[in-house]
Design brief:
Elements: H1 2-14, H2 24-34, H3 48-80, H4 92-104, H5 126-145, H6 147-163, H7 165-177, H8 183-192, E1 204-206, H9 217-236, E2 244-245, E3 249-250, E4 261-264, E5 271-274, E6 281-285, E7 288-293, E8 295-296, E9 299-300, H10 303-315, H11 334-341, H12 346-353, E10 358-361, H13 369-378, E11 391-395, E12 403-407, H14 414-425, E13 446-450, H15 453-458, H16 460-476, E14 477-483, H17 488-493, H18 498-514, E15 520-525, E16 534-537, H19 542-549, H20 553-571, H21 577-590, H22 595-599, H23 601-604, E17 609-614, E18 629-631, E19 639-644, E20 652-658, H24 665-683, H25 693-696, H26 700-703
Parallel strand pairs: 6-10, 10-11, 15-17, 17-19
Antiparallel strand pairs: 1-12, 1-18, 2-3, 4-5, 6-7, 7-13, 8-9, 11-12, 14-20, 15-16, 19-20
Helix pairs in contact: 1-3, 2-3, 3-4, 5-6, 7-21, 9-10, 18-19, 18-20, 18-24, 19-20
C-alpha cells in the first residue's frame, strides 16, 4: 500500500517544488525589500546571504511539513479503508472507524482522488471457494440430476482441491506483485477473447426517460450531443464528484476511463482503445456516415449551433433504397469482422473509432416502452449502430420516446452508464415549443460527410450478412419493461431484503415455467477494491429450492437471508466465481484439467436466468427519470431480467427472451406479476390487488409518483 502512495506524493507534490529552487534568489530579494526580520531583536537588517539561508531553511521546513501531512493523510485513508466493517457493522470500533475515516476524507475530492488508496481484491483460499461452490451448486444438481450426479460433482470438487496448488500459488504471486490478480485476466478472457457477436447478449441497452419534452429529432439530437460532450469534458478534467458510498466509503472509478473507448476487433483477441481526448461525434443516417465537430479552439458549441448541423444531415436525406451501411459489419463475429475491417480505408475506420461516441438518426419511432427497449438493442433502422463503441445513441424520428442507448460491455458495467444518464437527464431542458434553451457555448459547429459509398458497394455481401444477423435476432427476441403490483416499501416492512425477495420470486417464476431449478446469475460489485469490476451473486440455495417446491414464509425468509449472506462474501472479495475463473485460466496455462470444468456444465455453462438490479436513488423529477434498461438472454431458452427498485411503491422489470423459451418476455412478466401477488397473500391472506398489469402499464410513467387513488400501491 505504501509504495504507490509514496510515488503519488513524490510526483504530485515533491517534483513540482524542484523548479522553485531557482526562484530562491528572487524570493530572497523580495523578502529583503520587505525587511520582515526587523521586528526581531538584534540588528534591524540582515544581509542577502542570511536572508537566503533563512528562506531556504523555513521554506524547506514548510514543504516537508506539507508533504508529510499529505502523505500521512493518504496513508491514514488507505489504512482505514482496509478495515473489515462488513463483519462488524454495528460495533463501537466500526463507529469510531467511520468517524475517523470521515474526518480524513477530502471535502472536494478529484474524481480519481482515492483510486490508489483502495485495497486490492483479496484472493480467497481454494478450500473456501470450493465450499461455496458446493453450497450454491450442489442443491441444484441434486434437484435436477439426482444423487449420483451430486456424488460425481463432489468428487470433482475434491479433485480441484488437489490439483489447484500451483494455480493458486501463481495467483498469489500475481496478487503480491501486480495491482490486481483478477483485472487483466477478466477483461482479456471474459470479454476481449470472446469471438462471438456483441449483440444481443454481450452489449446492454437502455430506454429513454418517462417523458420526452420535444418531438423534434434535430433538437433532441443536439441536446444529447451537447450534454454528453459536457459530461466527457467533466470526466476528462476530473471535475465530476468522486463516487463515495453513503458519503463515507470511496469506490473504484477506473472503469470510467473506458467511457469513451472502442473495442477494436483482433484476430484472436480484441483491444480497448480510449478516445476521450477526441472532440468529434460520428453520426449514422440511412447508411451514410457524418462527422460533427462541435469544438472550436477548445470551446464547445451551444445546442442551437449543433442543432443546425444535425438539421443539415436530415436535409441531405435522400431515398437511397436502404437504411443500413458499414455499421452492420460490427454485428458479425469478432474474427470475421477483423478480417473485413482490413478492407476498409484506414481514414474511415480511424474517424469512426476515434469519435467520443456515435449517434444514429433513425427514421422509425417506437410506439411503446417495450419497443423503445427493443430498438435500444437493434436500432430502428437496423445496421446503423457501431456496436464496438462504448456508447451508441439512437435518436428516433419523433414522439414520446425520443432516444435509446446501446453500450459495449467490455468498456464498463451499466452502473457507469446509469450515472451518466442521470447526470444528463437532470440538465436536459427545452422551452414550451420543444426547442433548445440557451446554454453556454460558441456559435460555430462544423459537419462533414465520410465517403463510404465505395465501401458499401465493395462490401455489399458482408454488410448484408451483418444486417441479416441483426434482423434475425431482432425477430427472434422479445423484450420490454413492466411494473410490479407493489415495491420495496412493502417488502421492507416485512423485514426482508428487496433484492433477495426479487431473486427468490424470479426463481419461483422460472420453476413454474420450466419445472426445473435455474442456474441463476446476479451481478455484484467489487467497486470497493482497486480495479474491481463485478462478481457473481449465486442466489440459488437449498432454502430457495424448498421455497419453489413448497412456498412458505419461513423458507422465503431463509432463502433471502442466504442471498444477504452471499452478498457479504462478494463485498469481502470472498465469493466463488471470479476465483474459479482465475484458477481455470491459470490451470489452462499450466496444462491442468479440472473435472469440474470438463464434465460439469452446471459450473461453466451460461445462465438460464441472468439478472441485474439497480438500486440507484434518482435525484431528478419522475418525468426525467430513465425508464430502465436490459440485456439479452445468454442462451436460446434463457431469460435476461433487470429490475429497478429506486422507488418505494413499484418496480420496473425489464425482461428479454428468445422465442425458443417456454414463453416470451410478456408471458414471463405476467407470471412475475401473479407470483408477487401470491407471495404477498402468503403474508397478508386478505390482500386483493384491485388492478392488473395491463391497467397499470399505460400509465406507468404517470403513476410512478405513487399518489394515484386508483392504484393503491
Amino acid at each position: 500500500m505504501t509504495i504507490p502512495i509514496l510515488k503519488e506524493v513524490v510526483w504530485n507534490y515533491a517534483i513540482p517544488i524542484v523548479p522553485a529552487y531557482h526562484l530562491l534568489p528572487t524570493v530572497s530579494k523580495f523578502i529583503i525589500s520587505l525587511d520582515p526580520f526587523s521586528v526581531l531583536p538584534g540588528p534591524s537588517t540582515l544581509n542577502e546571504e542570511e536572508i537566503l539561508v533563512l528562506t531556504l531553511k523555513y521554506g524547506l521546513a514548510y514543504v516537508s511539513c506539507y508533504i508529510g501531512v499529505k502523505l500521512a493523510r493518504r496513508l491514514a485513508i488507505g489504512g482505514l479503508l482496509r478495515y473489515n466493517w462488513i463483519a462488524r457493522p454495528k460495533s463501537i470500533f466500526t463507529k469510531i472507524w467511520a468517524v475517523t475515516l470521515k474526518s480524513c476524507l477530502y471535502s472536494k475530492p478529484r474524481f480519481y482522488e482515492y483510486e490508489n488508496l483502495l485495497p486490492r481484491i483479496p484472493l480467497p483460499s481454494v478450500k473456501h471457494t470450493v465450499g461455496l461452490l458446493k453450497l450454491v451448486t450442489g442443491p441444484t444438481i441434486l434437484e435436477n440430476s439426482g444423487e449420483k450426479r451430486l456424488e460425481e460433482f463432489n468428487d470433482a470438487c475434491d479433485q480441484m482441491l488437489k490439483v489447484s496448488r500451483k494455480p493458486q500459488a501463481l495467483l498469489m504471486f500475481k496478487r503480491l506483485f501486480t495491482k490486481s490478480w483478477l483485472a487483466d485476466l477478466w477483461i482479456d478472457y471474459a470479454y476481449l477473447s470472446s469471438r462471438g457477436s456483441l449483440m444481443p447478449s454481450s452489449n446492454y441497452f437502455c430506454a429513454d426517460t418517462f417523458h420526452n419534452f420535444t418531438k423534434k429529432q434535430a433538437v433532441r439530437a443536439s441536446s444529447v450531443i451537447y450534454w454528453t460532450m459536457r459530461y466527457y469534458d467533466e470526466l476528462e478534467n476530473e471535475r465530476l464528484e468522486a463516487i463515495v458510498l453513503n458519503g463515507l466509503i470511496p469506490t473504484d472509478c477506473h472503469i470510467f476511463k473506458n467511457f469513451s473507448a472502442t473495442r477494436v476487433p483482433g484476430k484472436e483477441k480484441d483491444e480497448l482503445v480510449c478516445s476521450i481526448k477526441s472532440r468529434h461525434v460520428v453520426v449514422f443516417r440511412k447508411g451514410r456516415v457524418f462527422i460533427i465537430h462541435p469544438y472550436k479552439n477548445g470551446e464547445l458549441a451551444n445546442p442551437n449551433s449543433i442543432k443546425n448541423c444535425v438539421q443539415k444531415i436530415l436535409d441531405l436525406d435522400v431515398e437511397s433504397g436502404k437504411d443500413y451501411g458499414i455499421a452492420a459489419l460490427t454485428a458479425l463475429g469478432r474474427t470475421e469482422w477483423y478480417d473485413i475491417r482490413e478492407k476498409i480505408p484506414k481514414e474511415i475506420i480511424s474517424n469512426i473509432e476515434s469519435a467520443r461516441f456515435t449517434l444514429s438518426l433513425d427514421t422509425e419511432n417506437p410506439k411503446s416502452e417495450h419497443e423503445d427497449l427493443h430498438l435500444g438493442c437493434f436500432g430502428g433502422n437496423s445496421g446503423n449502430m457501431w456496436y464496438d463503441k462504448s456508447i451508441n445513441i439512437n435518436v428516433h424520428s419523433e414522439g414520446r420516446w425520443g432516444c435509446t442507448y446501446n453500450m459495449e460491455h467490455a468498456c464498463g458495467e451499466a452502473t457507469i452508464f446509469g450515472l451518466y444518464q442521470l447526470w444528463y437527464c437532470a440538465r436536459e431542458e427545452y422551452d414550451s415549443e420543444g426547442e433548445c434553451l440557451e446554454f453556454p457555448g460558441q456559435n460555430v459547429c462544423e459537419m462533414e460527410e465520410l465517403d463510404v459509398e465505395k465501401v458499401n458497394i465493395e462490401l455489399k455481401d458482408e454488410i448484408l450478412k451483418g444486417l441479416n444477423y441483426i434482423l434475425e435476432k431482432k425477430a427472434s427476441m422479445t423484450c420490454g419493461i413492466w411494473p410490479t403490483p407493489y415495491g420495496k416499501d412493502w417488502i421492507k416492512k416485512q423485514r426482508i431484503s428487496p433484492d433477495g425477495f426479487m431473486q427468490v420470486v424470479l426463481q419461483l417464476v422460472y420453476y413454474k415455467l420450466n419445472k426445473t431449478i435455474p442456474k441463476m446469475y446476479e451481478s455484484g460489485s467489487l467497486a470497493l477494491y482497486y480495479l474491481g469490476r463485478t462478481e457473481t451473486i449465486r442466489s440459488v440455495s437449498q432454502k430457495s429450492i424448498d421455497f419453489c417446491k413448497n412456498p412458505s414464509l419461513e423458507s422465503l425468509k431463509q432463502a433471502c437471508q442466504h442471498i444477504v449472506d452471499y452478498k457479504k462474501e462478494v463485498v469481502l472479495g470472498q465469493a466463488a466465481d471470479r476465483h474459479l475463473f482465475g484458477l481455470y485460466v491459470v490451470g489452462r496455462y499450466l496444462g491442468i484439467k479440472y473435472d469440474l470444468f470438463e464434465n460439469f456444465e452446471e459450473v461453466w455453462k451460461m445462465d438460464n436466468l441472468s439478472t441485474s438490479s439497480t438500486p440507484l436513488a434518482f435525484k431528478v423529477s419522475i418525468a426525467k427519470c430513465p425508464i430502465g434498461g436490459g440485456f439479452g438472454p445468454q442462451l436460446p431458452d434463457a431469460f435476461g431480467v433487470s429490475y429497478f427498485y429506486s422507488y418505494d411503491h413499484t418496480m420496473g422489470v425489464a425482461i428479454s427472451a428468445f422465442k425458443d423459451s417456454k414463453t416470451d418476455a410478456y408471458g414471463f412478466s405476467k407470471v412475475v406479476w401473479d407470483t408477487m401477488i401470491e407471495v404477498r397473500q402468503m403474508m397478508e391472506p386478505g390482500y386483493v390487488c384491485r388492478y392488473g398489469q395491463d391497467d397499470l402499464m399505460p400509465a406507468f410513467g404517470d403513476r410512478m409518483d405513487g399518489k394515484s387513488a386508483k392504484f393503491d400501491f
